[in-house]
UniProtKB/TrEMBL annotation:
The lineage of its organism: Eukaryota, Sar, Stramenopiles, Ochrophyta, Bolidophyceae. Residues 11-140 form the Clp1 N-terminal domain. It comes from Triparma strigata. Residues 166-375 form the Clp1 P-loop domain. This is mRNA cleavage and polyadenylation factor CLP1. Coiled coil: none annotated. One of its GO terms (molecular function) is ATP binding. Keywords: ATP-binding, Nucleotide-binding. One of its GO terms (cellular component) is nucleus. GO terms for biological process: mRNA 3'-end processing; tRNA splicing, via endonucleolytic cleavage and ligation. Residues 392-499 form the Clp1 C-terminal domain. InterPro entries: Clp1/Grc3 (IPR045116), Clp1_C (IPR010655), Clp1_C_sf (IPR038238), Clp1_N (IPR032324), Clp1_N_sf (IPR038239), CLP1_P (IPR032319), P-loop_NTPase (IPR027417).
Amino acid sequence: MSAFKSVKLTLLPSSELRLSLSASSVSSQILSVTVLSGSAEIFGTELGLTTKLPTSSNLPIFTYYGCQLLIHPSEVEVGEPGPENEIIQDALSREDDEDIDEVELEGLEDAYIAAKDGDSVITSINIVNTHAQLEVMRDTARRSLTSTNEAAKEEVNPSPRVLIVGDTDSGKASLMKTLTSYALKIGRQPLVCSINPKRAVGGLSNVEGCLSARSLSGGFKDAAYVDSFEISSASGPGTSPLTFFYGSTDLKKNEGFYKELVERMGESLAKREHACEEKAATSPHALNEASSGLICMASERVDAASVKLHLHTIEKLRINVVIVLGHDSVYNKLSKKFVDQDKVKVIKLPKSGGVMKKEAAVRSASVSRCARSYFGVDKAGAPGRSIITKPLMELDIIKMESVAVGGTMLPVGQAEVSTNVNLKKLDSLIQNSIVGICHPKAAAEYNELGSAESIYKGSIAGFLHVKSLTEGDGEGGGNIVFMSPCEGTLPSNMIVTGEGNLTWVNG
């Protein structure tokens, strides 16, 4: 057996190991954890035998009953446990009191075990209690949907529709994943939604500047919990999330347009929910989704204007449970708005003591990893799943601008339908930019009916990465080389970009 650098740890019941990873580890998953004995979980989902550490900068490994863990480089294949497994036997023979504070593993910047009676236990219990309250609502909604009593059917018993509110790096995504994991463990199928354009979540909103939603059937894609979701729809397996393109990570760029997209998201989710409710009596799948509800990650705005923005979201997404993470001002203001009614419950949960601000390099690595996952890039600089070359003259490139910028609607003479967005035709694109592909139906409506709204409020068929541009030969306008998430022709030749000029360098 070849020696390798690793660390063995023993966690007592109801304790939490907190790891801080470097940008290189977030980007490439160079560390793994092997469970030697007992059980542990990350974001509410139990660890397998050997699991690559998730691509998140701050990771909590929590155990209810105690466990022994081995943290080691991912390149080392530990193998199945047994008396002949030299790596595991060697780890088990070590002393249990290795000092985690003195661990030096590539990709691991800091690590410590939270106190058994500290905030890790309090946080975990709060989340479990919150999950239990959501389960009561799901059971009530399920009974209402399956009741043969006409009076019971008319009584409104909605499934939980949760909005998670908090500032940057407050733990919103972690809480969303944990609540989702707990629901999936007992067979629920919640819709998961992100209306936070500042955060890329692989498998949900793979690039920044998006609002996305999808249904979950099998939970996180694999035991590595890398933010990827398995999906399904009310009628069977699906292939992609519902995505609307805001085109920027800054809500202040065009808050009016953002609110339009939130309203559009609400309309789409309401149609899906209604369809599931209609089929609930005959379809177990539809019944499960209709009663499982929604878990949504809000934007990161927590300034003076954020309460109005959250109230708009609560109305348009028909939210009935608001969870505020560690922000007294927002919690108090939202609580006062709903103090005299029981339609919306406002809950305050403390931020975990393990939550820390992400460094710029770590945040960039996380965005890059999501993009690489989406385009099928194995490592930085690799070509990805598919490369598509398109003549520039065959593309309709449209930029969504705020009205203040002074863009012009397309085509000339078209009536303006939004006070927030103008469409402007571009002659080319910026290298390394991320652009959206208009859905074929939206492109057809725009070309045939002159409906600009179908472009900026329509769902996106997918995204492309502008790999390179070549100049024309005098007769044409040159070519654009795109990196695509899949092989084949583009769904449409209408490309949309936003004011944020979202970019990603594959290097």
